[in-house]
Design brief:
Largest interface: A-B, 18 and 20 residues
Number of helices of chain A: 7
Largest sheet of chain A: 5 strands, antiparallel
Order of helices and strands of chain B: EEEEEEEEEEEEEEEEEEEEE
CATH topology of the largest domain in chain A: Alpha-Beta Plaits
Structural class of chain B: mainly beta
Shape of chain A: elongated
Strand order of the largest sheet of chain B: 13-8-14-18-19-21
Order of helices and strands of chain A: HHHHEEEEHEEHEEEH
CATH architecture of the largest domain in chain A: 2-Layer Sandwich
Shape of chain B: elongated
Number of strands of chain B: 21
Oligomer: heterodimer
Number of strands of chain A: 9
Strand content of chain B: over 45%
Radius of gyration of chain A: 31 Å
CATH class of the largest domain in chain A: Alpha Beta
């Protein structure tokens, strides 16, 4: 009979092909149910939750359901996992030595999710890695950061966990700074008033309170340097920085305030002298 | 009373074409072919917006009205508005002050459906300088708000048309010393906006402010109050934003 194969024992373990098949079917059903629940969660609940919580809960639900089904499948078919635990303990030591960095990344990933120094969706900068962008995801072994040029950088979790992380996530606003030089002959107060008015009028995303501030920072070789500091909503750097200097220059030009540039006078030597 | 040649708030039936004029803004709506209307808006900076409204009936109704200033330049804040008073108000100890202030508005265009429901279609401002942001609090823990610098109004005075509505503020000082109030911050999404048909007059629900002391900190509690003096001629503006739960707000990071 064709069904006799289901009663065949596997390597004298007491486990039959039929039992193994049922275990596999239950586990497969678990994967399918986990996917359906995940899809339902993503459609109905995730859009109303913070991005990082939604992603963490999504993983928890998905893998949680699969693990529950696998345990249920093995228990219902009388599969004893204690042997695996002992073997797993021994293998763990072997694998641990062989794959230190992998384990380190795994542990770092777990700690990143627990400590949450940054959340998915936050803008972050890792100065050590020279990476700046939006944190897309923290996965089992690595994190992905999408840079502002659209490219995605995959960074091992260990590196993220042990690096300095610069983030703007804790505040709703951030500041952008530029330096503007005006000629020594110009009236500083007037130049500042002109720049302030131009920024308030034309840089839509600059905050009115706290408003732009101006520090005279240097009496430089060719110019009096003024440090212009503008506050704006945290995620709107791209709305401010590309136009800030242009707005300031236009306003200063319009008022006839000179922005000097370094000049060098070259004397041509006379060979007869 | 309508200002010069500007179009008033209200509903407009369009079967052929319509031109609306507002300060720094012009809107043209025109039927194109048999089943669509083209919508064109131009502002003083020559920025142009073009949209299409498919409509098989060959006619369309729109409503032009003031809306809460939460949409421009971008929807960033949840519901907080920061009103900086052009001149600070001194409220004497244990006293109450009733004032009227300008309240910045945006202009909304709604499409009125055949069943009477209204869909938010377009939004703009007649004075871009009033669509700005501010922070209430310090950079590390402050709240991002929409911002408006506003002046006090006399009872009979009219706010700048199409740019400001009127709002009443009742400030009660429960302290045993006089204090200055220079700014008011409060959640605004559950406030209703009203307008008078065929005019530029708009009014928003009022607020009540209570100055108190918590421990050693002076705070101001802000509470929503319905615009009670309105009569039946004031029309309620349809909602352009999701109405949040009515809640009190405590200004615990200063109000001078």
């Amino acid at each position: 009979m064709s069904f006799e194969i289901l009663d065949v024992q596997i390597m004298d373990t007491g486990m039959t092909v039929g039992r193994l098949l049922i275990t596999a079917i239950i586990a497969l059903a678990g994967v399918i149910i986990a996917r359906v629940v995940r899809m339902f969660f993503k459609k109905r609940f995730a859009p109303n939750m913070p991005v990082d919580s939604a992603k963490s809960l999504d993983k928890l639900i998905y893998y949680g359901i699969i693990i529950i089904f696998i345990l249920a499948a093995t228990a219902s078919q009388g599969i004893d996992l204690s042997g695996l635990v002992v073997a797993g303990g021994f293998m763990g030591i072997v694998i641990g030595f062989a794959a230190q960095s992998v384990v380190s990344n795994l542990i770092s990933g777990i700690f990143l999710m627990i400590e949450k120094p940054v959340k998915q969706g936050n803008q972050v900068e890792l100065p050590d890695s020279n990476v700046t962008g939006t944190l897309v995801d923290i996965n089992t072994f690595s994190s992905r950061i999408q840079q502002f040029d659209g490219t995605v950088v995959r960074i091992p979790n260990e590196k993220v966990f042990t690096s300095n992380i610069r983030t703007f996530a804790l505040s709703e606003i951030r500041r952008s700074d530029v330096t503007v030089g005006i000629a020594y002959k110009e009236n500083i107060k007037k130049a500042i008033a002109v720049m302030k008015e131009a920024i308030e009028k034309n840089v839509t995303y600059s905050l009115m309170e706290p408003g732009p501030t101006f520090w005279v920072t240097e009496l430089a070789d060719s110019s009096v340097n003024i440090w212009v500091r503008v506050w704006h909503p945290r995620d709107d750097l791209a709305e401010v920085m590309p136009i800030l200097l242009a707005v300031i220059k236009d306003a200063l030009d319009k008022e006839g305030i000179e922005i000097p540039f370094p000049q060098r006078v070259v004397w041509k030597g006379n060979s007869n002298e | 009373m309508l200002d010069d040649e500007y179009s008033g708030f209200g509903q407009y039936d369009i079967s052929d074409k319509l031109q609306l004029r507002l300060p720094k803004t012009e809107i043209y709506i025109e039927i194109k072919g048999n089943n669509r209307f083209s919508y064109y808006r131009k502002n003083s900076e020559d920025q142009e917006i073009r949209k299409t409204i498919p409509q098989s009936s060959g006619k369309i109704k729109i409503e032009l009205c003031p809306v809460l200033p939460l949409n421009l330049p971008a929807k960033k804040t949840n519901d907080l508005i920061f009103l900086r008073l052009a001149e600070s108000i001194f409220v004497e100890k244990n006293s109450k002050a009733d004032i009227l202030v300008q309240f910045p508005i945006e202009i909304g265009v709604f499409v009125v459906n055949s069943d009477g429901s209204k869909d938010f279609f377009d939004c703009f401002t007649c004075e871009p300088m009033h669509s700005r942001f501010a922070l209430y609090g310090t950079p590390d823990n402050g709240k991002l708000c929409m911002y408006g610098k506003v002046s006090l109004l006399e009872e009979s005075a009219r706010p700048e048309p199409y740019i400001f509505a009127k709002m009443g503020i009742t400030i009660t000082n429960e302290l045993s010393e006089g204090t200055f109030v220079g700014k008011v911050v409060f959640p605004v999404t559950h406030h209703n906006v009203y307008y008078l048909n065929d005019t530029s007059d708009a009014h928003i629900d009022d607020i009540e402010a209570f100055i108190k002391k918590e421990s050693t900190l002076k705070i101001m509690k802000i509470k929503h109050a319905a615009y009670s003096k309105k009569d039946s001629s004031w029309k309620l503006v349809p909602r352009a934003e999701t109405k949040t739960e009515k809640r009190k707000f405590t200004m615990d990071r200063g109000f001078d």
